[in-house]
Design a protein that fits this description.
Strand order of the largest sheet: 6-5-4-7-11
Radius of gyration: 22 Å
Structural class: alpha/beta
Helix content: 25-40%
Number of helices: 11
Order of helices and strands: HEHEEHEHEHEHEEHEHEEHHEH
């Protein structure tokens, strides 16, 4: 319909399909060429070879597969450790709302014991683009994500927390910003973060969230802003950036300061780091690491990892935003 076509024009580049015997001008521009009865060029991925008597459903499946592979492959890495309800919402939103044509979903589980493993096995057994890595211990944030990145086959890499919900078009919009080779890391806007990427927009239901995200996308299309650190609840980067920077630093216990560290490494390598209000991702802040709060371990880990960060970089870490002013005394 017209709305769907309009969304496609905004989110996807056009791909040209032409017969192999088309005029040279069209053939040179075509992303995919259909060659009947082996008339294509062997080894050329642009050619889809079909017998003349191939039925149309099979023809369409072959063309669809070739079209999808003409987009750079994206790898979405999600780390899980218990919190089955959050993981279900996150993965369901990725599967429902990722219209990017060529992506894989890699889930690394850190020894969950609440039914998460069984759920992941069920999903990977029924959905072909899901890959699951099961750890027999809680490896932590850095090592777990590094496992996912090492297994990724994409040219575009995305780290996504399992306490997030993504809207339709999120991956396509983030990936488009990475067309700019100067951008090293790009993150979205959100309802909860520690920095200026947090924007306050009221919504209570999933439908209202989708409406908010759609409005953000239309209002801020292709806009981005510099930021000190895109938080790794959702961050995208190209494979060339990853190969230059290397994996996440695993010195930070459990998970904190990896994103701050990676942003500094990206800047030191000459990349820009940014966030875009065009993409709005819901984030249930501290849903995972918040379990440490009742035991007092959270602040102990903050101080421990802050010390490691400061020792590595030789700087004094500062908050991204000042603490709110205390309420006036009556």
């Amino acid at each position: 319909d017209a709305q769907t076509a309009g969304e496609a024009r905004r989110r996807w580049d056009w791909r040209i399909v032409a017969p192999a015997d088309a005029p040279d001008a069209l053939s040179e521009q075509a992303d995919i060429q259909i060659a009947f009865d082996g008339a294509g060029v062997a080894g050329d991925e642009r050619f889809v070879t079909m017998p003349w008597d191939m039925p149309w459903p099979a023809r369409w499946a072959a063309i669809d597969k070739a079209l999808r592979s003409s987009w750079p492959r994206a790898s979405v890495v999600v780390l899980t450790h218990d919190n089955l309800a959050f993981s279900r919402m996150c993965l369901a939103s990725v599967l429902e709302n990722t219209e990017y044509p060529n992506y894989e979903l890699i889930v690394v589980d850190n020894a969950s014991s609440d039914g998460t493993i069984e759920e992941l096995k069920r999903l990977s057994g029924s959905i072909s683009n899901i890959k699951v890595i099961l750890n027999d211990h809680n490896a932590g944030f850095g090592p777990g994500n590094n496992q996912g990145l090492a297994a990724a086959t994409g040219e575009i890499l995305i780290l996504l927390n399992n306490d997030t919900v993504v809207p339709r078009g999120w991956l396509t919009r983030l990936a488009r910003h990475l067309d700019d080779a100067s951008i090293g890391l790009i993150g979205p806007a959100t309802n909860r973060s520690c920095n200026e990427a947090q924007i306050d927009i009221p919504y209570q239901t999933y439908g209202e969230f989708q409406a908010v995200a759609r409005s953000q996308g239309e209002r801020y299309e292709r806009e981005r802003l510099p930021i000190r650190m895109p938080m790794m609840f959702c961050v995208a980067f190209r494979r060339d950036t990853y190969e230059r920077l290397g994996p996440l630093d695993e010195r930070y216990e459990v998970g904190m300061f990896e994103d701050e560290d990676y942003a500094l490494r990206a800047k030191a390598a000459g990349f820009l780091v940014a966030w875009t209000p065009e993409v709005y991702v819901h984030h249930a802040y501290h849903a995972s690491i918040g379990k440490l709060l009742p035991t007092g371990d959270y602040m102990r880990l903050v101080k421990l990892n802050q010390g490691r960060f400061e020792e590595k970089w030789g700087i004094c870490w500062e908050r991204h935003r000042p603490l709110p002013a205390p309420a006036p005394t009556p």
